[in-house]
Design goal:
Length: 119
């Protein structure tokens, strides 16, 4: 059984990118984060302590975006995924989809990474 705790369309602003002009003012980064976790206990107990709260994922994404400049969105997404897994052993895998909404007029580039707990 796979259950998922997620947060979609999390809009955060930061100064990340390859080009100098991307560091001049914050630009929007849009996250979708999906954490696979067994929610059976939480569904029965109705207690926050028995789940992985989406606010935990929000906090990690915000810390990474508010942190030092990172050139590639691949590294941003991977860093968020790995930190979620490191801090919450109940998460078996996590997918982070990350888009840069303001960089192109013709489309929205992005990446999606999935990472799993090591056995």
């Amino acid at each position: 059984m796979t259950d998922t705790v997620f947060i979609e369309e999390l809009s955060l602003r930061g100064k990340h990118g390859v080009y100098d002009w991307e560091w001049e003012k914050p630009q929007e980064f849009l996250f979708d984060i999906y954490a696979d976790v067994d929610l059976t206990k939480a569904a029965k107990s109705d207690k926050l302590d028995d789940t992985v709260c989406w606010t935990y994922m929000h906090k990690i994404a915000k810390e990474v975006i508010d942190g030092p400049t990172i050139y590639l969105i691949e590294k941003i997404a991977t860093t968020v995924a790995e930190r979620i897994l490191e801090g919450e052993p109940r998460v078996t895998s996590v997918t982070v989809k990350l888009r840069k909404n303001e960089i192109l007029d013709e489309g929205v580039p992005g990446v999606s990474v999935t990472r799993s707990q090591r056995s």
